[in-house]
Inverse folding.
């Protein structure tokens, strides 16, 4: 976005949020505004201050298991937070539903999730597949999805949802399974760890590279008409495949190092997800550029470099407790 000439603002929650410094060190051009998805007034103030052309709501508690532990909080942030953001844009833009929509209004992107498909009704999943969320996280995301559509239909607000399947990169949090594997592989290879504990090895996901998915989000908001799109690769792999690919990359046998921890199995699992992103391919010209095995190898290489630089780089279990 910065490369395309955008002035980018980040909404920062909380006092002395450490992520602010982390982002500033890497992208000094980004400016910050204080605000919280739990606080309507702060969002109105942020939108009023910036008067943005485009708002990307990627704010959420994104780790699915946490949504069983703190269901109400996750619903507030991931569900009601979307409503508050839409209300802020509606109020500042003066959209009432009964007066004409002003030109040059703020466009809104909502990060919907393939977790909404949950116990899938059909495969692959497209924009018309019915939702059956399997976690409080998925249920809250479904609310965010429908309320975005409702503000579009009620007020003429330019609001869309991208239904994104799992997207990964070396920056992925260490609690998510791909990065948990890549970091463990690096630590095992370099002699800092011996075992990697995982949950359900049979779960199947459609994983893509996060950089490709950010490109898709931007493309969606440039369309003349607001339309929701599914974004994914249409290729699937199991957790077992991910572990095998990562360990093989450093010349190790995954079966010697992976063990099952039943505590990591979810109360209700999303067994398999596979995207039909045909609409995005046709309308936006979007296509993924990284195959999953290469993505896993990219993540392992990155973690080998991090662990070599900082030999005490902690294991995911120590960092997150998962
Ligand atoms: O789990 C299985 C686990 O935590 C993937 C978020 O970005 O994508 C992400 O949600 C699968 C699940 O991602 C472990 O049971 C096995 O079936 O990497 P994950 P997720 O839950 O699919 C969607 C699209 C989002 O919207 C979310 O915000 O892997 N699995 N063993 C494990 N998962 C974890 N985390 N840790 C394990 O040890």
């Amino acid at each position: 976005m910065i490369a395309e000439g955008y002035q980018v603002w980040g909404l920062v929650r909380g006092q002395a949020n450490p992520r602010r410094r982390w982002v500033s060190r890497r992208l000094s051009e980004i400016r910050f505004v204080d605000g919280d998805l739990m606080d309507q007034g702060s969002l109105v103030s942020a939108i009023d201050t910036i008067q943005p052309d485009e708002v990307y709501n990627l704010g959420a508690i994104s780790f699915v298991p946490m949504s069983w532990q703190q269901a109400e909080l996750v619903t507030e942030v991931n569900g009601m937070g979307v409503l508050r953001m839409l209300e802020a844009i509606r109020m500042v833009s003066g959209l009432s539903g009964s007066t004409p929509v002003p030109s040059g209004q703020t466009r809104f992107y909502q990060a919907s999730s393939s977790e909404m498909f949950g116990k899938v009704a059909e495969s692959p999943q497209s924009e018309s597949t019915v939702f059956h969320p399997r976690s409080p996280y998925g249920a809250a995301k479904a609310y965010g999805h429908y309320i975005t559509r409702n503000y579009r239909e009620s007020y003429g607000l330019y609001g869309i949802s991208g239904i994104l399947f799992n997207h990964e990169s070396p920056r992925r949090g260490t609690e998510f399974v791909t990065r948990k594997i890549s970091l463990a592989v690096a630590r095992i290879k370099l002699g800092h760890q011996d075992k990697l504990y995982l949950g359900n090895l049979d779960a199947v996901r459609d994983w893509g590279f996060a950089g490709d998915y950010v490109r898709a989000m931007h493309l969606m908001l440039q369309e003349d008409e607001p339309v929701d799109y599914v974004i994914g690769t249409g290729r699937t792999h199991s957790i077992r495949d991910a572990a095998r690919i990562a360990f093989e990359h450093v010349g190790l046998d995954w079966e010697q190092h992976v063990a099952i921890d039943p505590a990591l199995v979810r109360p209700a699992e999303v067994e398999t997800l596979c995207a039909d992103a045909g609409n995005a391919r046709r309308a936006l010209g979007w296509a993924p550029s990284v195959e999953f095995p290469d993505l896993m190898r990219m993540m392992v290489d990155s973690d080998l470099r991090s662990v070599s630089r900082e030999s005490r780089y902690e294991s995911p279990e120590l960092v997150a407790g998962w």
